[in-house]
Amino acid sequence: MGVAAAESGTATALVIPPMQFYLTNSTTRTAHTIPRNPQLQSRADSMAASGQRSCSSWHTQPAPPTAPATELNEGLTELEKGQGVRMLHTQRQQMSNSSSITQFLLLAFTDTRELQLLHFWLFLGIYLAALLGNGLIITAVACDHRLHTPMYFFLLNLSVLDLGSISTTVPKSMANSLWNTRTISYARCAAQLFFFLFFITAEYSLLTVMAYDRYLAICKPLHYGTLLGSRACVHMAAAAWGSGFLTAVLLTANTFSIPLCQGNALDQFFCEIPQILKLSCSHSYLREVGLIVFCVCLALGCFIFIVLSYVQIFRAVLRIPSEQGRHKAFSTCLPHLAVVSLFLSTDLFAYLKPPSISSPSLDLVMAVLYSVVPPAVNPLIYSMRNQELKDALKKLIQSVVFKQR
Of 190, 205, 276, 287, which Cα lies nearest the Cα of 247? Predict the structure, then answer.
């Protein structure tokens, strides 16, 4: 018996000739002759039947569909859209990093432990001197009825503001140096910035009011008591405190509403607006310009008022015929003029210095000069050439010493 198998491109057929079988495919053909065998014939029949069933099932199975070019392009477009959405989401996350910032890193004065302790003791001495000096002035003005005048009333308010401003920045810096840390929480940073702006702006406004007080005392002495009564003094002091509060609210809210994308490290020993703005995103420059314009307008208005007041004061003093009268008039103005000069010179140089000479160490020194030194030096300046204040302080100290004995 012969068995022949033929395979084409679509099916495979088994043919059984009488004497021989042929194995056929697309390339070769081989013939074999074998003797007839009934068992082999039945096996061949079963193989042929199973082959036909497998071929028919293979041909009836549908071919996998091929994606057209348009569907492929649509898929690529959807992929690009997905990538664009992810990029936009990443940018939004970077823009809203301020909501994820939980703390800031303040600038350390030094990394050496011995110098950190030296900084702690130095700031502690300055802080205690400011507390003692301003506390003595507040107590002397409040207890001595001879000092219940407009000038000393404003001086009392100035001492309170000095205590507030130095207490906002120095204790935190001392604690960081003592415990060898740099962190400050987001909420504490916002509170520190608010109170520092509040006290500094109110002090600047109060110095402007004090310039007007000196102008009335020297240029219009006959109307001094009428123009600056107790109610007028309270209103002017309240206006100074109110301007500080409104300015602090506006600047703090605008500063912390700006998205921060540049980390959380501040190049200053306390939270300061220029250092926080350095962490802002590039698109927020309009707000930065708005803050700068607002601060410049406020500072320039007070500065022009102070300058015009002192121009009138100097003109009036130079018209005084006696040298003793001129000396007395100048002695009442020099402490205020010295405080104003120290305040404005350090502030203006700290914020308006050229970027070419700016450096973290120089910024740190200027920040100490305008935020730490004036509150400690102002009581000394006012009591140095003021005999009435000296007498009141001496009387106060003697009463305290005698009571203890």
Answer: 205
Cβ pair 251, 239 in contact under 8 A: no
Measured CA to CA, the distance from residue 244 to residue 168 in angstroms comes to 15
Distance of alpha carbon 221 from alpha carbon 385, whole angstroms: 21
What pLDDT, on the 0 to 100 scale, is given for residue 391? 85
Token pair 């301003």 is at which residue? 134
* Residue at 77 is within a domain: no
Amino acid at 242: G
| Residue matched to tokens 């507390």 | 131
H helices of 61-149, where?
69-95, 97-100, 113-143
DSSP 3-state assignment of 34? coil
Which tokens belong to 222? 């006959």
| CATH number, position 218 | 1.20.1070.10
Contact 273, 291 (CB under 8 A): yes
Longest dimension (CA), the chain: 155
- Same domain, yes or no: 266 and 319: yes
The segments of the chain whose pLDDT lies below 70 read 1-99, 282-285, 288, 404-405
Residue 3: burial class (beta carbons within 10 Å; 0-12, 13-18, 19+): buried
Handedness of CA 302, 303, 304, 308 (dihedral sign): positive
- How long is the chain? 405
- The reported pTM is 0.73
- Helices 360-371 and 373-384: crossing angle in degrees, nearest 10, is 40
Residue 364's domain comprises 104-404
Contact 103, 186 (CB under 8 A): yes
**Cα–Cα distance, 226 to 278 (Å, whole number):** 50
